[in-house]
Amino acid sequence: MEEQAHGTLVEVLDLGVLLLGPSGIGKSECALELVHRGHRLIADDVVRIRSSGGGLVGTAPDVIRHYMEIRGIGLLFIPDVYGPESVRDEASVDLVLQVEEWKEGAQYERVGAERPTRKIAGVEVPELVLPARPAGSMATLVEVAVRDHLQRQQGRVAAQRIDEQFRARGSGQSE
């Protein structure tokens, strides 16, 4: 099964991160900042996603592979700007980050005990909604989301840890 997404796929700490959101929200600029920090671009603007071995693999169409459009600058061929190690032809899709414009009064996740998922090409993938704020560092949020995801894969969930601490205090146990 294969799907196509309007988004950007980057590899951050060996984890494939699919950035989705409306045109002009800052997905490409975020990916450019991540590449600048040493992570890798897989696809920008159009991401082809196929199921493979129970997971997902994403790539770019051949004609735009390793190119990125940055408004105000134009098209960039990322290997020319950052070197051949700044790109990969394909990567797994392990985490979806839905970027949306910050909305005053909107209910954004604040605890993170459970992760919602999104089904892509028949495969469930963890998904977060990240509000884009003026002057905010979306690249830093992406890196933190990846680090948190990696911790969760090892069974370390901060929300569960603090819940356990509160329960222990409530039952009279000390730290």
Polypeptide structure, described:
There is one protein chain. This protein is an alpha+beta fold and 175 residues long. It has one domain: P-loop containing nucleotide triphosphate hydrolases (Rossmann fold, 3-Layer(aba) Sandwich). Helix content is 25%, strand content 38%. It has helices spanning 27-36, 78-82, 138-153, 158-170, and strands spanning 2-12, 15-20, 40-52, 55-59, 67-70, 74-77, 90-92, 95-101, 117-120, 123-132. It has an eight-stranded mixed sheet with strand order 7-4-3-1-2-8-10-9. It has a two-stranded antiparallel sheet with strand order 5-6. Helix 1 (27-36) packs across helix 3 (138-153). The longest helix is centred in the C-terminal third of the chain and has 16 residues, at 138-153. The chain is globular and about 65 Å long. The termini are far apart.
Short description:
The chain has 175 residues and is an alpha+beta fold. The protein has helices at residues 27-36, 78-82, 138-153, 158-170, and strands at 2-12, 15-20, 40-52, 55-59, 67-70, 74-77, 90-92, 95-101, 117-120, 123-132.
| Poorly predicted residue ranges | none
- Which homologous superfamily in CATH is the superfamily? P-loop containing nucleotide triphosphate hydrolases
Calculate the terminal CA-CA distance, rounded to whole Å.
50 Å
Mean pLDDT: 91
* Number of helical regions: 4
| Helix residue percentage | 25-40%
- The name CATH uses for the topology is Rossmann fold
Instruction: Give the number of DSSP strands.
Output: 10
CATH-derived architecture: 3-Layer(aba) Sandwich
Indicate the radius of gyration in whole angstroms.
18 Å
What is the highest CATH level, the class? Answer: Alpha Beta
Q: Structural class from helices and strands?
A: alpha+beta
Order of helices and strands: EEHEEEEHEEEEHH
Report on the biggest sheet.
Answer: 8 strands, mixed
Question: How many domains make up the coordinates?
Answer: 1
The largest sheet has its strands arranged as 7-4-3-1-2-8-10-9
The backbone outline, from C-alpha atoms, is globular
* Proportion in β-strands: 35-45%
